[in-house]
Write a sequence for this structure.
């Protein structure tokens, strides 16, 4: 068999030797032979095609874990996987473009399209929560005409419950008509207010030290939607018959997945799968993610705590969101998914449909 040195292979594949070493470590592209004595790596010319595919997928910005999955698939399945990835990337890009448009207008002091009267939208929502196998329900939830919010309390005993309730209380004033141009400021302010309120409660009662909570909340204003997110609760968007996860889990396992150091299949067995890298907590000042998105009549949103997505996978969740038209019934079926999966944790779901508001 003809072998190429790693230098020859790097030149032919246009990947650096450092990249080739990383891809080897991550199981993306193993050398055909490694010399026992020198540690030199050798590749076959037949591996060039896979190396080029890896390089192209990297240029697209695909995370390493996902590339690894793609390289194991037959071409048709790989094409479908790439389609999924690109749909998600396009949706993320659209959200960033909206935010950039808003900021450009804001910074240049111009009238932005956002300050023109936007078609009013209304939301029709349903809320369901279940304590599952836990003794208490430390999730807290709020749903109103303009605001939807889910918080998953951490800290054991009563502290988690106190934290999630306090944070929901702190964001509740967002359930009002907020000018679209002030949405991000209002969300940022509310999340800081929530953090200070945890700080004050913990300072007043040592039993609450270390308490914290996740928060995923969205506010609708005209045809804009502001989203604030910290922790591992999630928001999903259903649009045009497809389901997109629009929040990024602030967990150790998610960051390992992003870096390609863990596969999706390994997550459920990871000993530290519950470890949060960011949360709203007394004594911490972790940053929340803020997003500004366009809202359209016909969109559906799901906010949920990890009691749902820790048990049900994205496909099961999507099947309910796409298959059940009534939000109330959809929320019930999502809770049922968690219960069927053993419901080891509290589970909370808000399903909200965006509707064109009836003419005044
Ligand atoms: Mn939870």
């Amino acid at each position: 068999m003809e072998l190429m040195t790693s230098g020859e292979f790097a030149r032919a594949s246009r990947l650096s030797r450092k990249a080739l070493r990383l891809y080897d470590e991550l199981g993306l592209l193993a050398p055909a032979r490694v010399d026992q004595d020198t540690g030199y790596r050798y590749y076959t010319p037949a591996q060039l095609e896979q190396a080029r595919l890896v390089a192209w997928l990297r240029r697209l910005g695909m995370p390493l874990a996902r590339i690894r999955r793609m390289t194991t698939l037959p071409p048709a399945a790989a094409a479908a996987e790439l389609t999924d990835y690109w749909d998600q990337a396009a949706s993320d890009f659209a959200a960033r473009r909206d935010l950039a448009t808003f900021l450009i207008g804001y910074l240049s002091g111009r009238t932005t399209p956002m300050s023109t009267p936007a078609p009013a939208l209304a939301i029709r929502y349903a809320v369901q929560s279940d304590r599952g196998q836990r003794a208490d329900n430390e999730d807290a939830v709020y749903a109103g005409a303009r605001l939807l919010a889910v918080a998953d309390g951490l800290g054991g005993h009563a502290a988690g419950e106190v934290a999630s309730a306090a944070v929901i209380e702190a964001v509740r004033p967002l359930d009002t008509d907020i000018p679209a141009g002030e949405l991000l400021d209002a969300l940022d302010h509310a999340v800081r207010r929530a953090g200070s309120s945890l700080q004050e409660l913990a300072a007043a009662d040592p039993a609450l030290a270390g308490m914290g909570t996740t928060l995923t909340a969205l506010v609708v204003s005209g045809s804009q939607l502001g989203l604030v997110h910290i922790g591992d609760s999630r928001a999903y968007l259903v649009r045009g018959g497809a389901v997109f996860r629009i929040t990024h889990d602030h967990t150790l396992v998610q960051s390992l997945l992003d870096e390609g150091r863990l596969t999706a299949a390994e997550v459920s067995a990871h000993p530290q799968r519950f470890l949060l890298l960011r949360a709203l907590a007394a004594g911490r000042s972790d940053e929340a993610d803020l997003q500004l998105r366009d809202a359209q009549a016909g969109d559906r949103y799901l906010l949920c705590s990890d009691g749902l997505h820790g048990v049900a996978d994205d496909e099961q969740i999507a099947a309910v969101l796409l298959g059940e038209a009534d939000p109330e019934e959809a929320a019930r079926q999502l809770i049922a998914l968690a219960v069927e999966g053993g419901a080891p944790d509290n589970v909370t779901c808000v399903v909200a449909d965006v509707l064109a508001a009836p003419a005044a």
Observations:
- Residues 4-59 form a domain with the Multidrug-efflux Transporter Regulator; Chain: A; Domain 2 fold (CATH 1.10.1660.10).
- Residues 152, 305-307, 345-346 surround manganese (II) ion (CB under 6 Å).
